[in-house]
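Ticket #4471: structure export looks truncated?
Reporter: QA, pipeline team
Priority: medium

Steps to reproduce: submit the single chain below to the structure queue and open the exported record.
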Amino acid sequence: MPRTFLSRFACSVVSFLCAASCHAAWVIVDAGHTPAHPGATGASGRVEHLYNLDLSKAVTDDLQKAGERVTRTGADDREIALAERPNAEPKADFFISIHHDSIQQAWIDAGRRREFKGYAIFVSELNPHYGQSLACAKAIGERLLAAGETPSLYHATPIKGENRPLIDKRLGIHRFDDLVVLKTARMPAVLVEAGVIANPDEERRLADPATIAKLANAISQGVVDCHP
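Actual output as written to the record:
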């Protein structure tokens, strides 16, 4: 077989393999909190970390099916410092932290649990890739909206403990500059609060395998959409 034909054939094979895999991103999927520090408590008493594990596992599975490389953090029983989570894989292209929300204790005490529901997305302007982080937050927000989810906007309420600048009202994107996992990440980074487990109606929905699958699909598609 002539050398030139062999060269062209080899190049074609390389091009085909690259088209199939070279686009893949390396994503860190973080399950927020740990067993020792489980985060918020749902209306039923089930802790946030367990919800985070379920959804982050589903997001990981969907990303891997899409051909992405994934490193999980916060998914075992060991303690892991906040600053270590986004830097667990130095070669990663993107970091996403999965959480579930509560509300202010004063609102719970006032019997207002059922007033609050929906997702929230956070970015930090202190992240070295803030522009790309925001682009990814928007991509995830668009996918969540398309899946029928609605954003919660109460984190923008001008009270102590909230008052987070609302960047995009339609997509539910807030700026929270001092979130450690976002500002210490060396790559674009986003934190997603999938829903409000302090609301008993929302908590039941978020525990439903069908809801978990829908949320995971929307979040993973948003991540794929925003490849740098």
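Status: closed, not a bug. The export was complete when the record was re-opened. Leaving a note from the reviewer for reference: Residues 24-225 form a domain with the Aminopeptidase fold (CATH 3.40.630.40).
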